[in-house]
Amino acid sequence: MSSRTVIRGGLVVTASDEIHADVLIEDGRVAALAATGTPAAEAFTAERVIDASGKYVIPGGVDGHTHMEMPFGGTYAADTFETGTRAAAWGGTTTIVDFAIQSVGHSLREGLDAWHAKAEGNCAVDYGFHMIVSDVNQETLKEMDLLVEEGVTSFKQFMAYPGVFYSDDGQILRAMQRAADNGGLIMMHAENGIAIDVLVEQALARGETDPRFHGEVRKALLEAEATHRAIRLAQVAGAPLYVVHVSATEAVAELTRARDEGLPVFGETCPQYLFLSTDNLAESDFEGAKYVCSTPLRPNEHQAALWRGLRTNDLQVVSTDHCPFCFSGQKELGRGDFSKIPNGMPGVENRMDLLHQAVVDGHISRRRWIEIACATPARMFGLYPKKGTIAPGADADIVVYDPDAEQVLSAETHHMNVDYSAYEGKRITGRVETVLSRGEPVVTEREYTGRKGHGVYTPRATCQYLN
């Protein structure tokens, strides 16, 4: 039995086009588009008709950077794959790419299998995996080839967190050389963790223990230095590079310079760096702990460089780095010692709305919104055109979006499994109304109609900017 849906009368917005069109969906995929009111559109028939008059019809968001159930600092991220993907759906995101973790002394395969076990049968929307490489050795390097062949085509390394995820320059170079050969993409957490640890130790010795010092020791210059070093190592290896959660003006400048040189270097930022700042980290009564993440929030003046980078395409993607820890009982582990506050913030539900607010505020265009939130992450991580666009043959991951609805972001109303909102009380314009994942309604006129297990694992091709 085939199932058909028609979405009528909306403004279809993709990275490349805006057109008033009706969308025909058949068996989970986009079958056809036709300009609204034309005979072709009026010939579309279906059991389910969705009226999108006065609304945008946009591709489901692709969040290329989430951490569900991630172990960190003696605790775990508060969202499971079930709660986190449900929240993603509520926020108009229909695909996440999460990070499987290799533990030191263990194989990549063991880490990947563990993450498959967490996610399988639990997700409301589709998902893929990147692989965190914590232990570079000859066996690991061989495994990278096998993972690329089976659709895990990106590998994350850390210049931060000595003793946990940290790789030295030699290990990074070896992994980059392997990626240059097998088509994989190295994703880099670019902060000089060795130097930061010295500054942490010195700050604590001076009695500087409050959350705001987390931002002060993780200096923008140490993000820029690591970004520069990662770029040059990738250049030596002949490998592409994707720098995650870029937060600082100086780091953007390093990426811009490399791209001006014609290097295959890409950058991602996150909503927290675009909308929050060190003012939040400095909130009294330990409230600043809610905003502890790495790279850290920066002073307000860094935001202009990030917005400019998004407009000039020196930054290509906005992901969330969604890694939520409850304030009560988790963030509080760092009372009296900011270095023990679990690093991470909730955001998977807020990204599409915050970026629409950026359209309203004049930072970016509507098409650029879809480009940085849907199309480019899909291309970057080998999911396009299955994901990230509305075109015949694409998965029918589609959001009906009300650009005029007003909402106030709050922990009272969000669906993430965390006891605070990083954007508590923020008024924004625009709201998700209906969400389809592979043609199935997951959110229907602001009612949750999805189910765990609908979302399926999605193997990925290699980065589509390198073909």
Short description:
With 467 residues, the protein is α/β, with parallel strands linked by helices. 31% of the residues lie in helices and 23% in strands.
Describe this structure in words.
- This protein has 14 helices and 19 strands.
- The radius of gyration is 21 Å and the shape is globular.
- It is 31% helix and 23% strand.
Helix-strand layout with pairing:
Elements: E1 4-13, E2 18-26, E3 29-35, H1 39-42, E4 48-51, E5 56-59, E6 61-66, E7 71-72, E8 75-76, H2 81-90, E9 93-101, H3 108-119, E10 126-132, H4 138-149, E11 154-158, H5 169-182, E12 185-189, H6 193-205, H7 212-217, H8 220-237, E13 241-243, H9 249-260, E14 265-269, H10 271-275, H11 278-281, H12 302-312, E15 317-318, H13 351-360, H14 366-380, E16 398-408, E17 427-437, E18 440-444, E19 447-448
Parallel strand pairs: 1-4, 1-5, 6-9, 9-10, 10-11, 11-12, 12-13, 13-14, 14-15
Antiparallel strand pairs: 1-2, 2-3, 5-16, 7-8, 16-17, 17-18, 18-19
